[in-house]
Amino acid sequence: MEHNQSIAIIGGGVGGLFCGAILSKEGYRVSIFEQHYKIGGGLHQFRRDGVTFETGMHVVGAFQQGGALRRICSYLGIMDQLEILPEDDSCYELFHIGCDQKKYPMPKGAKRFAEALCAEFPEEKENIARYMQELYKICDEVKLYSLENTEVVEASTMPFMGNSENFLKSVGGFINSFTKNERLRAVLAFGNPLYAGEQHKTPAYIHAFISKFCIEGASRFVGGSQQLADALSRVITDAGGIVAAANGVRRIEIEGKSIDHIVTADGAKRRADWYISSIHPSSLFRLLDASKLQRSYRERIDSIPNTYSAFMLYLVFKPGTFPFFNYTYYYQDDYSMTWEHDVYTADTWPKGLMCATPPATAHDVFAEKMIVSCIMNFETVRQWEHTTTGKRGAAYLAFKQRCEQQALCKLEQIFPHIRTCIKSTYCATPLTIRDYYNQKEGAMYGVKNDCNNMALSHISVRTKLKNLLLTGQNINLHGILGVPLTAIHTCAELVGMEYLLNKINKYKDI
């Protein structure tokens, strides 16, 4: 399909890059403007002490044969540019409870996953079978989740919504409906840090989507996630497009009910036929004359709560001292804490952690680094919210040092001798995440979905401005699968859903 239309994309994160690559592939002239010095958003990497760290995308999925991301990347012609390491089949995630030193290894594949649970909870065999059946049923309700051809999705609808009884049940209500065993309930919910799960608010479908995504294809990037951002960027530039880092949009000028032009950091006025925003809608509103949008629309978007953030600890190991493990490690002190990682005092934080040793090569024996994530609310750093990076003051530095030591102490409960392996440490708080991702309150997973008020958190890809579309983790779904699927939904407004899915699904068997 050939087009002569131009697209200006605000934000060079995952959503902006996937939209840009898809539309470049379909003949549009694409320009991306990113405020940060490096493109990628959650894919972006940084270097410390000679070691490269990922900022956000530590676990990926759907790259297995027939997987949605494998199909999308094959359609874009970049699959052979990515080096993916599947996590261990016998244990892609490990859940560790401190109070009884019990470890629950989670194997890949629905059948093996269920068998492992049944081996641990033999009296719950029928309940586990029902849980798995309903989990997959929820995912099957949403055709776009598996890239199945479906009718054209109108932006006024919710393309990731289903109609079954369990779909919009709270995740806690969903899990609890299958078993009264408190230990099993905690085990089924152990992955909630991957989607900022709240027991009585997060819809069950988010739990189902993320769980199936990991069960069927949990993997990692060898050498880091920047490779995907760079590959998407090349699709755009090879088609004659522009990907401009350190040149974000400073102002959006509106005429009537359309965007007339944008002004970028270099002072240039830039016009396009269509504009796509991949940044948080609240950040977008600050770039334009708010009176041009309905007050009720702006107030609703601004009022949507954000998911929690995290304190990130980055460890560089002395060579040959710490064993590499090819799975994601979850730890918490007690079963009762599963839904309470974000409820803490200065003394009780952190309630638990998630850690991984990202692969430097496909054959690592020892780890060169570790990434540790501890859930942290933005309120914990609220007193410094008006400061900027490098200028937050002595009290903030003392706060970071205290948090680092508390996180290390928690890590020692898993790996008692880890401090002897550490060469250097670095850390980041919700303020760092906010400023580098341009993400309101440093939210790890965008806006919060509340099953008790889904209408509040639903943001359409269309806007009140005729030539402005939205994408990114605050629209529909978050994460390495959710954001590309949302990008497809956004791009379908221009090229058509059936047409786009037909082209992508030519690669279903690769």
How does this model look, in words?
The chain has three domains: 6-43 and 66-74 and 223-304 and 447-507, FAD/NAD(P)-binding domain; 89-217, no CATH class; 308-444, no CATH class. Helix 3 (110-120) runs antiparallel to helix 4 and helix 4 (125-141) packs across helix 7 (204-217). The protein starts with 5 loop residues before the first strand and ends in a 6-residue tail after the last helix. It contains 15 helices and 19 strands. Strands 7-6-15-16-17-14-18 form a seven-stranded mixed beta sheet. With 510 residues, the protein is an alpha/beta fold. Strand 3 (45-48) and strand 4 (51-54) form a beta hairpin.
Task: Assign a percent range to the helix content.
Answer: 25-40%
State the low-pLDDT regions, or none.
152-156
Radius of gyration: 22 Å
Mean pLDDT level: 92
Main sheet record = 7 strands, mixed
Short description:
With 510 residues, the chain is an alpha/beta fold.
